[in-house]
Amino acid sequence: MLTIGRLAALADVRTDTLRYYERERLLTPASKSGSGYRLYDGDSLRRIRFIKQAQHCGFTLVEISQLLSLRHQPSARCGDVRKLAIEKKRQLQARIRMMKTMSKVLDHLIRDCSVASRPVDKCPILSALDRADVR
Q1: 38-40 and 31-32 beta bridge pairing
Q2: Which run of H or of E encompasses 90?
């Protein structure tokens, strides 16, 4: 059994992170010591690594909770997990498109502000940001 400090060290996270995962019901101590310390088993380390890897793929903690709960549903199938992954991919693609649009807007603003010595009250970037139609 692992203490919260030892588990945090092995998982390369802070103990606050583990406590947060507990509050979010993503992690549950296997037991408590006689003095009330949380004790975790090896499955807890695997679960934390799963959570961190899923976060690297863009899944939120709510979505990770859904993925974890599918593991314990006898009727769940790989297709159920695949649906969640496809939806996450769609969300990421939408965010990428939005960020590309934002980048193009910034390109235009930067191009319009080519005179470095211009007074700040005449700055095209600040003027454009003051307008509601920056696109």
Answers
A1: antiparallel
A2: helix 78-112
pTM (predicted TM-score): 0.79
Task: Encode pLDDT of 39-71 as tens digits.
Answer: 999 899 999 999 999 999 999 999 999 999 999
| Residue matched to tokens 């009250």 | 121
Cβ pair 131, 125 in contact under 8 A: no
Contact 27, 47 (CB under 8 A): yes
Q: Which two tokens stand for residue 55?
A: 């976060």
Q: Which residue has the tokens 């549903």?
A: 73
d(C-alpha 86, C-alpha 75), whole Å? 20
pLDDT tens, 95-106?
Answer: 999 999 999 999
Q: What letters, b where the CB count within 10 A reaches 16 and e where it falls short, cover 31-49?
A: eeeeeeebbbeeebeebbe
